[in-house]
Amino acid sequence: MNTIIGIQGITGSFHHQVAQEYFNQEFILDECLSFEELVDSLLAGKSDQAVMAIENSIAGPIIPNYALIDKNNLHIIGEHYLSIHQNLMALKGQKIEDIQEVHSHPMALLQCMDFLKKYPNIKLVEDKDTAETARRIQEKQLKGIAAIASKTASEMYDLEIIAPEIQTIKNNMTRFVIIKKENSFVPESEINRASIKFELDHKRGSLAAVLNVMSDCKLNLTKIQSLPKIETPWKYSFFVDVTFEKYEDYAKAKSLLNIMAEYFKVLGEYKNTKI
After folding, report:
1. What is the DSSP code string of 15-83?
2. Which segments constitute the Prephenate dehydratase domain (predicted)?
């Protein structure tokens, strides 16, 4: 029986590409047009695992997705990096001068803003998914409207690329995480990355003390992001990613942080994927 993999987007999207590369086996695709729908798919048992974008080298971390993972007690069991190539595409025969609107996911629009600023008369329209926008243009034969999506999407939905590689920074990487409803226990010998969350007492030096513990335990802090606690003004949750060479060093840090923090939670322990 094939595994069911949930993705944000449809066939031809970047999430679909990650699923193909990461799992490298036959699977059934569950297409979800929002990250909330993706989480619901996991919780309802419609999908066994899911692919979720978590940060981009240009636009930064997607903090709401960390919050979704945390709120729904999901588990990060792996990660995958994808080089993002954004292309402007439309119905065949059209040129850039014919385009009145560009539709795409807000992250894709943001990644291509330097190119789009050259055409101030073109209206930018945020949409749910890059590939779904490309499909809709073809299905409804929408003239004067272009999509920003992958080359795969242009081929799959028979659109013409009128401007290739329009992302502002050519080395544009997105990090995706693989999530499950239940934790998958990776052997300690393979674990060298973790995603954690903690909350601290609101007093001077509390964060510095935690960072010192991480340094003393030989953890490499790869990301730290604060998120306000809606129900408690002026208190914050910290979402942190760390890498390490020895699991024992991480285990020591984890036991200390569990004592130091008002609240401590592991979102995932998994294998670091080298770019």
Report:
1. HHHHHHHHH-S-EEEEEESSHHHHHHHHHTTS-SEEEEEEEETTTEE-HHHHHHHHHTT-EEEEEEEEE
2. 4-181
pLDDT in tens, 193-237: 999 999 988 778 899 999 999 999 999 999 999 888 877 777 789
Classify domain 188-270 at the CATH topology level: Alpha-Beta Plaits (3.30.70)
| Reported CATH class of domain 87-163 | alpha beta
Q: For residue 77, what are the CA distances in angstroms to 130, 190, 195, 272?
A: 26, 12, 10, 10
> Smallest Cα–Cα separation from 183: which of 269, 100, 95, 98?
269
Q: For the chain, what are the domain ranges?
A: 3-83+173-180, 87-163, 188-270
Is 90 exceeded by the pLDDT of residue 270? yes
Q: How many CB atoms lie within 10 A of CB 124?
A: 16
Q: Name the class of domain 3-83+173-180.
A: alpha beta
pLDDT tens readout for residues 83-123: 999 999 999 999 999 999 999 999 899 999 999 999 999 99
Mean pLDDT of 21-25: 90
87-163 has the same fold as 3-83+173-180: yes
